[in-house]
Amino acid sequence: HSRQEIRNIAIIAHVDHGKTTLVDKLLQQSGIFRDHEHVQERAMDSNDLERERGITILAKNTAIPYKDYLINIVDTPGHADFGGEVERIMKMVDGVLLVVDAYEGCMPQTRFVLGKALAHNLTPIVVVNKIDRPAARPSEVIDEVLDLFIELGANDQQLEFPVVYASALNGTSSKNADQQDDNMKAMYDTIIENIPSPTESVDEPLQFLVTLMDYNEYLGRIAIGRVNRGIIRQGQSVAVMTRDGGMKQARIEKLFGFQGLKRIETDQAGAGDIIAIAGIKDINIGETIADPQNPEALPVLKIDEPTLQMTFLVNNSPFAGREGKWVTSRKLRDRLFFELETDVSLRVDETDSPDAFIVSGRGELHLGILIENMRREGYELQVSKPEVIVREVDGKKMEPIERLLIDVPEESTGAVMESLGARKAEMVNMINNGTGQVRLEFLIPARGLIGYRTNFLSLTRGYGVMNHAFDSYGPLIGGQVGGRHQGVLVSTENGNATLYGILGVEDRGTLFVEPGAEVYEGMIVGENTRDNDIVVNICREKQLTNVRSATKDDTVKMKTPRLFSLEQALEYLNDDEYCEITPKNVRMRKKIL
Ligand code: GDP
């Protein structure tokens, strides 16, 4: 492709607004797949865990041929834990598609990713997706998007953003809200017309910035990025400019371009191309691959600081080794350090004990995914309660603040506001559009959200929806930020359980349920503040499926014992407890002092 025929774009959205479906459809309709080839594999989420959680953890590249053009689409994770990656991707592209659900409108992750795109001077194409939904409200959503652009400081050019209305599900699109064409042509054309082609020159000395890392058993480390200028050739010698200002020699063993979802080996690539390079052993994100005759480094990429840390320990319970195959400190250490190969925002520190490591990451999701992957690989380990990493800025202690957006039935508004007040949340917006649902927006210390979800679900009888994303660092607020009556998570052995943990946040040690009560895994018990009853919520896959009341001394019986979800466990873990993780189970246990 000539440079004029290349379009490099990122796709950004709140989770579930339809990125993956959209890219799938763009690929399908571009005709590069024969019909049976796209059935199973969805374009972007290739890892099971990503698919289950509906998130994209590592950015994935898709290259879509359209007429004489090549559209490179880089997927971005919407979750704030992966903000550093989003920023890096913004530097690699010339435009973005912002996908917004035509019913849900702008959500915290929409705000988060849009903020990054605008800050990088990109003019997003706004895709109002799911236009087929019966409750779709496209014109209101466009107004919301415009407000958000203004609030985030968009410049005049950015405020002129192009809009495409689409149903990724049906494979239709249009520039017009009222009627859909029966294909994605409007979408392709809007991309071709509005996203600039790369302007870098192939005639200058080579520069390539390593922006993303992948790893493959056979190829080792794979560096992904955009050729910033010049030409890169398979087999050529290059200089690698390291993050610390050093320089070393290397050879380009293998060079790949992208075609559809595949990496295709290629002889050479030029300025503006997005490529993958294998064979440089210790290559890392932020390093520049340059012409050895003319080695110049690009500005070093910023890597996000960790905000949350946990201790990872060898499982030393008397039952260790029964359920997992990897149980020694050596194995644990190797696995954690291996993770550093591809994950730059992770930090692993050794401790005085060879059995314990302090693992610091971007948030609960980031660390939770690592733990879950290890569990599935056969590791047994213990993890401690996550702790927010407080930062020193100009001699002041600062803590992470989240922006929380909630939709609740009108009648629950008072109770929800009260519960968040106790957690030191500050309300910044409230919209009551008379539909019976109220949208509230808060800024809240990240600590205050730990363990809030169950409380919130019982206050809204399961009808509330909450979403949050990192906003900023703010002065550390003194004291506890937890609510009064948080809830109890229980753990079991063989389905018949003893109660291990009383997990109030402020009322630590208060008994909500008699110890020894018969309970089953997956059960969350919390106090209903209004009538002092105990409300029992059974959480399945984060969905509240059943609510019933019980009195304080009730023995509660339930069928279908199931695992804790790891997220629940991490959210509710108390200081004197740890979580035991094995391939078969996630258990909360009291620390033996
Ligand atoms: P992602 O998290 O942004 O990648 O979202 P997905 O592409 O996985 O879509 C999330 C859900 O929304 C899936 O159940 C899709 O089938 C559904 N979805 C995606 N696009 C549309 C659409 O245009 N209309 C409707 N009704 N549903 C859609």
From TrEMBL:
Tr-type G domain segment(s): 4-199
Location relative to the cell: Cytoplasm
Keywords of the record: Cytoplasm, GTP-binding, Hydrolase, Nucleotide-binding, Ribosome biogenesis, RNA-binding, rRNA-binding, tRNA-binding
Gene Ontology BP term (one): ribosomal large subunit assembly
Keyword presence, RNA-binding: yes
Binding site for GTP: 16-21, 129-132
This protein's GO CC annotations: cytosol; ribonucleoprotein complex
Keyword RNA-binding: yes
Catalytic activity: GTP + H2O = GDP + phosphate + H(+)
Subunit structure comment from the entry: Monomer.
Functional note: A 50S ribosomal subunit assembly protein with GTPase activity, required for 50S subunit assembly at low temperatures, may also play a role in translation. Binds GTP and analogs. Binds the 70S ribosome between the 30S and 50S subunits, in a similar position as ribosome-bound EF-G; it contacts a number of ribosomal proteins, both rRNAs and the A-site tRNA.
Name assigned to this protein: Large ribosomal subunit assembly factor BipA
Organism this protein belongs to: Saccharibacillus brassicae
Name of the gene encoding the protein in the UniProt record: typA
